[in-house]
Every structure is written in structure tokens, then in C-alpha cells.
Amino acid sequence: MNLIEEFNEYRSQMNDKILAADNKVIKRIFNLDTNAYAGGTIDIKSKEMIGLACSMVLRCDDCIKYHLGKSYEAGLTKEQVFEVFSIATLIGGTIVIPHLRRAAEYWETLENQ
User: Fold this and answer.
1) Directed axis angle between helix 61-74 and helix 78-92, to 10°?
2) What is the pTM (predicted TM-score) of this model?
3) Which of 11, 13, 18, 85 has the smallest number of Cβ neighbours within 10 A?
4) pLDDT in the model for residue 1
5) Alpha-carbon span 81 to 78, nearest angstrom
6) Is 60 exposed, middle or buried (0-12, 13-18, 19+ CB in 10 A)?
7) Residue 103 CB contacts under 8 Å (≥ 6 apart), including other chains
């Protein structure tokens, strides 16, 4: 199984288990997250770029992978993604660089699938 399949399968499996606990607050948070990234007055590509930059600054590798996958699906180019990487690294500082490395690797995997 490749990096993308492994991430997506684990994420889906664990989300199912978490939602099966039927906790109202967790379900509402998941729903809010889904709806926040839906198209609206801000297009999906822009929302994914915002999510990616924030995830990098917050140093959440799972979030970075998720937003990279969604960015790829939304049709972002490598150049656009690397521009987001540059802004996130500028805002977050050099502590973001290890996450930048993993993000670049994951993007490369998305492009080569």
C-alpha cells in the first residue's frame, strides 16, 4: 500500500470509529469542518490553500496530508502548492521546514500516483 492509500485508509477507518461513538459535540465539529471547506463566496481551491498554510504553521502532518490531497483534487498546480509552502514557512519559521520536507514528498507522491 502506498503513502496516500495508507493515510486515507487509516483516516477513514478511525473517523468511522470515532463517529460510531455517537458523541454529539464530535459529530458537530466534524460537520463544521466539512462545511467550512465547501464552496461558498471563497472558492474551494482558496480554502484548501488557507487550510494547507494553517496546517503547516500549526505543524500538523495529518492535516497537511489531508489538505494536500484536497488541493490536488481541486486542481492546484505544483507551483501554487509551493507558493503556499513558502508563505507557511515564512509565517511559521524554520521549525516548519521538517513538515515542508514531508509535504513536498507527499505532493510528489500525489503527482506520481
Assistant:
1) 150
2) 0.93
3) 13
4) 66
5) 5
6) middle
7) 56, 64, 65, 68, 85
